[in-house]
Amino acid sequence: MAYHHILVERHDGIVTLTLNRPETLNAMTAEMGDEVSDLVRAVNQDQSARVLILTGAGRAFCAGGAIATLQSRAAGGASEPPKNFYKRFLALRQLEIPTIAAINGPAVGAGFCIALACDLRVAAAHAKMGLNFVRLGIHPGMAATFTTPRIVGLAKACEVIFTGRLYTGEEAFALGLVNRVVPLENLMEETMALAREIAGNAPIAVRLAKKALYRGEADLLEAAIEVESEHQAYTWTTEDAKEGIAAMREKRTPHFRGV
After folding, report:
1. How confident is the model over 4-14, as pLDDT tens digits?
2. One-letter-per-residue 3-state SS of 49-97
3. I want to staple 101 with a disulfide (CB 3.0 to 4.6 A). Which of 57, 118, 171, 247 is the partner?
4. pLDDT tens digit sequence for 44-76
5. How many domains does the chain have?
6. Would residue 109 count as lying in a domain?
7. Treating both helix axes as pointing N-terminal to C-terminal, what angle do 218-235 and 82-90 enclose, rounded to 10 degrees?
């Protein structure tokens, strides 16, 4: 498959997947998700692959859903269930090898969710990241309600999700959302060093260790995706969602009325 929305590099067992729509801050589309899913299938069949790094081209990691998609959903123009969109990108959870998100810039909403879906996260100190769904009037998606509490615990996850706040790399590190925080100029060097350290270990042992760490979670993840899809589809029908998207487009504070 020829890729148009992602870039893929392979070197010494390390696969680097770069979301490549820099003109839109790597906003997510179904086509991009299809390419991510295709790559996951290919990497799982490649016994030489040891680690996958996920990052973004240009100045952003991923700005979340494409604005046209968000506007269409708010206007009632989307017929596909949200879970179908989630699963394209959450195919990353099916990788048998360790995954590291190198967060080089804004990682917002669903864009931060795919970083949370990785095993490890290294963030640039200046990068802004968070789950801003409720600030748009919609329910969290892309497995946010599943991954976040498993990474930071329930109380911190409630704060992250209920406030919709964006955090710097330093703040995200303090909360436990990311494993390491480094200056932007050192981000890929530090991430590659971590990847090489993992890749230098016995590959069968590492793959089986990952399998053991996530044992029993597949059904729980699927259940979370179903609930999020149902809840998010409902919130897309509300006036609050229309107001949230309009406010984002107009760069103003939304005025939610609970309808």
Report:
1. 999 999 999 99
2. CCEEEEEECCCCCECCECHHHHHHHHCCCCCCCHHHHHHHHHHHHHCCC
3. 118
4. 999 999 999 999 999 999 999 877 677 667 666
5. 1
6. yes
7. 140
Looking at the whole model, is its pTM more than 0.90? Answer: yes
Q: Is 116 in a helix, a strand, or coil?
A: helix
Domain range for 70 is 6-187
Whether 104 is covered by a domain: the verdict is: yes
Give pLDDT tens digits for 73-104.
766 656 678 999 999 999 999 999 999 999 99
The answer as to whether 130 is a domain residue is yes
Is 257 inside a domain boundary?
A: no
DSSP state at residue 228: H
Local structure of 161: helix, strand or coil: helix
Confidence (pLDDT) at 80: 78
**Nearest residue to 28 (alpha-carbon basis) of 63, 61, 53:** 63
Bridge partner residues of 129 (DSSP):
107, 167
Q: What is the CATH number of the domain that holds 117?
A: 3.90.226.10
3-state secondary structure of 177: coil
Cα Rg of the chain (Å, integer): 18
CA pair distance 63, 90, nearest whole angstrom: 16
